[in-house]
Amino acid sequence: MSLDYRLAPEHPFPAAIEDAVAAYRDLLDQGVAAEQIVLAGESAGGSLAVLTLLAARDAGLPRPAGAVAFSPELDATRSGASMTTKHGRDPLFTRESLNA
Prior knowledge:
By secondary structure, this protein is of the alpha+beta class. The protein has helices at residues 15-29, 44-58, 82-85, 95-99; strands at 38-42, 66-70. The protein has one domain (15-99). The chain has four helices and two strands, in the order H-E-H-E-H-H. Strands 1-2 form a two-stranded parallel sheet. Helix 1 crosses helix 2. The longest helix is centred in the first third of the chain and has 15 residues, at 15-29. It is globular and about 45 Å long. The protein starts with 14 loop residues before the first helix and ends with a helix.
């Protein structure tokens, strides 16, 4: 399934997370076992995959088999140690590109 979630600024936070959790619930309601579901996304979609995991957990939903997050931006403050320790490993998110 590919999710066409609502985008900001027309649909501000947390609209995208609500859409992703609704899609996850829909899969579960259709009888797809959580163990057969993997969330995946790149960049903003990677962040959305991680945030969906957290929202689903908080809603008491069963955990999916896993998630794959390519280049998610999870620290908007850019203050985590990985900004230095992982420098040069992610071609998309560098301190320079995020500050541009």
